[in-house]
Amino acid sequence: GTNLVINGDFENGSTGVPSDYIPGTGGSWGLLAKPGQYAVSTSPNLVHNNFYFCGDHTTGTGNMYIANGSDLANTIVWQQTITVVPNTNYNFSAWATSVENTTDHAFLQFFVNNVQIGAVFSPTNTGCNWTQFFNLWNSGVATSSTISIKNQNISQGGNDFALDDISFRSYCTNYDTIVVSYDPTTLDIGPDISFCDYATETI
User: What is the pLDDT of residues 76-132, one digit of tens each?
Assistant: First the structure.
């Protein structure tokens, strides 16, 4: 289905990006010098001196959401409220990457209407390595959903990350039937024979 997320690729800057994180206020390492802050930019290095030069997931030259990771569990990283159709299956997905090589990467989790869906997920320890994460959700009787990505890491060091191409789409499963058949014909080419290695035998 159509992506219901507004500005999921962040090409319109910080439009539609409510969160507990606040826009970067600056410091000795750049705009994102403090934990729990975010910026929308074309490269992590432009907002923090120690972050790597990474292209976004969409085109390699566009915007992405970049965060200096919070150390408070259940902090809302990103959130939107979306109208949904009852009794419909949806796929909530996002691409994430660490913004530097690290051994203490971000721990993130999807929530819908403040209920966690799926397990905690983490980008790899390698900076600029985009990985897609997703979980499935059924709307039940709901007509509206507040979808969130929350921080679950309580360590400040190395848990910095970027997000891109956040998506929330309806999906369906199709089924088909495949009939497998075989030819039952058997061949009889006479009785078994024995002969020595490298000998010639005619059937």
Answer: 999 999 999 999 999 999 999 999 998 888 999 999 999 999 999 999 999 999 999
Element spanning 116, H or E: strand 115-121
Distance CA 76, CA 38 (A): 12
What is the edge-to-edge ordering of all strands in the sheet holding 131-138? 22-23, 37-41, 64-68, 161-170, 89-98, 131-138
DSSP assignment letter at 6: T
Q: What span, in angstroms and rounded, lies between the C-alpha atoms of 26 and 39?
A: 11
Contact 98, 54 (CB under 8 A): no
pLDDT digits (tens, 9 = 90+) for 179-202: 887 777 777 777 777 777 777 766
Can you point out the beta strands (E) in 11-114?
22-23, 37-41, 64-68, 75-83, 89-98, 108-112
Q: What is the pTM of this model?
A: 0.82
- What's the rounded mean pLDDT across residues 26-44? 95
Question: At 6, which amino acid appears?
Answer: I
The residue among 84, 92, 90 whose CA lies nearest residue 142 is 84
